[in-house]
Amino acid sequence: MAVGTPAAGGRARRPPPSAGSVLDRDRRKLYIPFLVPALLLYLAFVIAPSVAALWISFHRWDGVSDMEWHGLGNYVALLSDTVFHTALVNTLVILVVAGGAIFVVSFAITMLIREMRGRKFVRSVLFFPHIVSAIVLSIVWGFLFQYNGVVNAILGALFGTGPIPWLDDANLFPMILLGTVWLSTGLYVTIILAGVDRIPAYFYEDALLAGANAFQRLRHVTLPLSWDVITVAATFWTISSLKIFEFIYAFGGTTADLPPPAVWNSALFVYGESFGGRSPSYLFGYASASAMLMLALFSVLVVVLRRVLRRDPVEF
Amino acid sequence: MPAGRRPARPGRAVGTALVWALVLFNLAIFAFLLIASFRTTAEIFDRPWGLPTTLHLENWVRAWTESGFARATLNTVALALAGAVTATVVSAPAAYALSRVRTRSAGPLSVFFVLGLGIPAHVTVIPLFAMMADIGLVNSLFGLYVLYSATHVPFTVFLLTGFFRSLPADVEEAAALDGATAWRSFWQIMLPLARSGILTVLILNIISIWNETLLGLVFLQSAENYTLSLALLNFMASMQFSGADYGSLFAGVCILVIPMVVLYVWFGRRLVEGITMGSGK
Amino acid sequence: MRYRPRVKTATALLATAVLGVTLAGCSSGDGGGSGGGETFTYWSMWQESEPQGKVVAAAIADFEQETGVDVQVEWQGRDNVTKLVAALRSGDVPDLIDQQYFTIKNAIVRGDQFTDLTDVYDMPIPGEEKTVRDVVPAKYDAFTTTDDGAHFLVPYEIIAYTIWYDAARLPEVAAEPPQTWEEFTQVLAASKAAGRNPLALDADIAGYAEYWTSTALVRALGPGGLRALVAQPDAAGWDRPEVRDAIGEVAQLAANDWFIPGYDSSKFPAVQTRWAQGEADFLYMGSWAPTETGSVAGPDVEYRSFNFPTFGTDDSLPASAIGFAIPKAAENADVAKRFMAYFLNADRLSKISTEANNLTPRTDLPVPPQLADANELVSTKELNPITDGVLGEFSDFDKETFQPLSAQLLTGDITAEAFIEQVKARQIDYWKAHG
Hints:
The complex is a heterotrimer. Chain B is mainly alpha-helical. Chain B has two domains: 10-55; 59-279, MetI-like (MetI-like fold, Orthogonal Bundle), CATH 1.10.3720. Helix content of chain B is 77%, strand content 0%. By secondary structure, chain C is of the alpha/beta class. Chain C folds into two domains: 39-152 and 320-380, 3-Layer(aba) Sandwich (D-Maltodextrin-Binding Protein, domain 2), CATH 3.40.190; 161-316 and 387-434, D-Maltodextrin-Binding Protein, domain 2 (3-Layer(aba) Sandwich), CATH 3.40.190.10. Chain C contains 20 helices and nine strands. Chain C has helices spanning 4-26, 51-67, 80-88, 101-109, 118-121, 132-135, 141-144, 171-175, 181-193, 206-221, 225-230, 241-255, 270-276, 289-294, 333-343, 346-354, 372-380, 390-393, 395-410, 416-434; strands at residues 39-44, 70-75, 96-100, 154-166, 197-200, 280-286, 303-306, 317-325, 383-385. In chain C, strands 1, 2, 3, 4, 5, 6, 7, 8 and 9 form a nine-stranded mixed β-sheet that branches. In chain C, strand 1, helix 2 (51-67) and strand 2 form a beta-alpha-beta unit. Classes of the chains: A mainly alpha, B mainly alpha, C alpha/beta. The interface between A and B is large, with 114 and 106 residues.
């Protein structure tokens, strides 16, 4: 990061007052024209549809006929819909369990590869799943772990074990969690490594001299000084985990089929209630209501998260 | 980075071994995809870990010609480039304005743009569909291009605003002293300075659009409009009646993955820097 | 140095503009036809390289030649109706579409978006003396008519759902196929005792698991019984003893370990493939089974099938129909209708049977040997919509409750009691929410 950014008031050289304010005034003229294109696109294709989704959630609608006012009916129905409950729980499990695992694993890997030879190579290879389409990863994951797939073949050859039902009903969601952790770890290793790298060496030296062991160094040096980055990463994960769709979607039997509702998350629920499956439900009002509920929930979560994680910035 | 060497501990050794195992796993998967694309389905299941006896190039041919991957590649390249460029072209000035202009609305507007990051596509897809259908832009690559550009604006504005803020103000001040207007200052000073950031966000956007599936699924109906993700899904669907053809499937997968790997190998350093730049502020 | 950024940016902008325009030019809706001549658009459920796709393509080519009509075909694949619903908003709909009857019914009959095809039934078939009605007898009306008696579908392929096996490996079954459920379970037990895997099922496709439970319930309750059961807001019918018995019998299949190992953790079409290669004896599947598994089947496989065994008196044949339909907003409905009649001509339609190896509504066409049993059943038994129509009429309930619970029952994850308990509770919730 550009450490040398001068703070707003403290410039090394004070320019004559006129230049700064001329530039400022000039910039002010550009303010609106520079903003308008982005703002327009954003309003038209992101904000407006979100507001519209809210509007639709108060109706019954199959996409073709007229919308039928339904008040809070969709929301009430959602509260007693077991499939929605499952989707909600799954989304939260992904957030907390997969997220927790990702952070622990990423942190561990970060601390390990900091002093490794070839750390850049390791980081690059771990990052690889992030640039590959989640559909591909899901196809590969399913292919590897199916009953007569590669993993069982190798396990059988190496250890003589019988085939393990990795993808049966009970194991499917844990496998999805595992896959999510695998494909996200690289990104978070990269982010956390960047934050940890910025910690100057003398802090660690001081800690060593004071007799701190590895765990104490982690707790008292690494964590506090990279807190900024951790906060950003945690917020980013919270937002991203809600959007996970492709990885789970491709676990359906065929492309015309959705995966079983037991592994649905919020995005799949929306898709499943609207367009998805061999015989789509076309329940657009219902689907929109579920999306709104999840959005509200996650907004609250993000705000709470930022509040919980907020600390006074440590200057160094 | 701590100076000096620390004595190797068993815990660290185990950890390091595990990390290398993970690295090996990722590499093995990529190698497997590549190798499997040259084998037949029977071979893959018989000896998953073997090398191909003969190079079954017909897998690639089949994926490329019969399954529409050729056309899909063209579509996806066009969409990714056009969408990423448009999003960046539209967002860079906005990010500049938000980072440099001191007005009361700059702060709240920045937050407003960041809000968009948190809105998932599946929330907006239904009304978007209704809207696009009403103006006749469904099943149209142009319509999808507009959507991709617009939906990548929040991320691009977010990243570039942070980036512009981190650039030194002196150069512009100095240019202002020499009589440069803000307009020229933007084009001739800021943009060159911001080149690396812009390149990074361009590549990130290209990758994101390349891999995007949900909007493509909903908005594209004709096979000739398919993007690579859709072509892959379509190929999987066709395996149902023509029998499992994993060789060709993996050839298709490689067509989808290899360009991204090439892009990543070429620009990887920038990508990583770009992500850290956004997060380290 | 000063000018380079400007040039670069300008180039980028120009490139974007060019790309944008190219995309606009490349974007296609359903393709305008040539000005002047007649034309219609057809969104096919088939892929172009599929056997049925080839048969339809050949018929289209002949039609174009004989009538001069320009046909625009999109080989959409199985999603074609979902895409149609998407297109209904913009009014830019294809003229002709085909799918399984329940998918079409669910999509365009519900919202009254279909064209009444009753007049097509009176049309003469080109090249023959017969009308469409003559070759598509009334027994298919269950699949082609709305509640008001209007025809929304002209069928050209019939699907029978039967239990398939390889007669070359199981000659004793071929000689005397089991008729009742008891006979069937005896055959299964004998197969298991002989060291084979009696049953195959790709359990990751919940729809296939549903075939077992829904057909068992139809056997117990008679045609229409399951549909009536699902339509009850208080789900009281699930407590009836015959329902419990039927579900219990199906649960026994998994409990007795009669399914091939790994059926619950494989990815389709792995288990179906293994069945075709002789690793399992029986597969309950639609009449597309021989075609789908033909390329991977072992040599000398002799495909034969028999009707789902009876519990009591009901021996109806679960079936479905694939046919043509026309959305209401179609602009070239008349031409499309003519093509429908054209396609039903004996010479053209017979290729569905001989080349695509599927059954047709016509009884006067040759039938490939592997479909002989199924054809016999179609001719003699009462036809009942697969899943008793629940798949089409209550698709949301089916997808979220009945299918997944059936899959869990067939994989032994839940007991029969748990199945009934949960299906009752969720059915009550469903009607409260969407009634």
